[in-house]
Design goal:
This protein is an all-alpha fold and 70 residues long. It has a domain of 47 residues.
Length: 70
């Protein structure tokens, strides 16, 4: 077996990044399972009632991407 030299901080960063990646993958799988699907008819009704996201006023929303993605 080949040996590599890596300092403690590099090892910790590698482990942190790897764990974060796995957690994000699993979270995405869970979201996919939990989010219900809608039929075309249901989606058309939603758009009729609420419009499309591109038409929303972005100032009324808070970007939570960093909070969600970690």
């Amino acid at each position: 077996m080949d040996k590599i030299n890596i300092n403690k901080s590099e090892l910790m960063q590698l482990i942190t990044d790897s764990v974060r990646s796995v957690i994000n993958e699993e979270r995405n799988k869970l979201l996919e399972i939990l989010l219900p699907t809608v039929s075309k008819k249901e989606m058309d009704d939603i758009i009729k009632r609420f419009g499309e996201p591109k038409d929303y006023d972005s100032k009324k929303f808070k970007d939570m991407t960093k909070w969600i993605m970690g």
